[in-house]
Amino acid sequence: DVVYCQSDGNYAHSQLSSGSSEITTQNLGAIEEILEGDGFFRASRSFLLNLKYLSRVDRKTCNCALEYPGGSCSIKIPPKKVKMLETTFSR
After folding, report:
1. Can you give the pTM of this predicted structure?
2. How many Cβ atoms sit within 10 Å of the Cβ of residue 30?
3. Which of 26, 38, 46, 65 has the fewest CB atoms within 10 Å of its CB?
4. Listed residue (37, 67, 42) closest to 52, CA to CA
């Protein structure tokens, strides 16, 4: 289960809920198309987040906290995307 994907040029690092990570030879845009409609959110040019693991969004620091069985992390996103997340969750 993918927690988030991080862009690295023509590659993408995928963090898995098991705690391991994988590198794919596709860019983030291609992965976004594959995962479209599966609860993923393009948080920035560099990150694609699985909303299932989103635990908190801090408006002041523009950080998203993700918690999963294999660990947790915090990802900084643009203020405009924070507002989009709020709109998504208010539905």
Report:
1. 0.90
2. 13
3. 38
4. 67
Q: How far apart are CA 85 and CA 29, in angstroms?
A: 19
Contacts of 5 (CB under 8 A, 6+ apart): 12, 13, 14, 15, 24, 28, 31, 47, 48
Cβ 86 vs Cβ 80: under 8 Å: no
Handedness of CA 31, 33, 39, 41 (dihedral sign): positive
Q: Are 76 and 63 in contact (CB under 8 A)?
A: yes
Question: 84: closest CA among 47, 49, 24, 41?
Answer: 41
Give the model confidence (pLDDT) of 13-54 as tens digits.
999 999 999 999 999 999 999 998 889 999 999 999 999 999
Look up residue 79 and give its two tokens: 């203020």
pLDDT of residue 86: 78
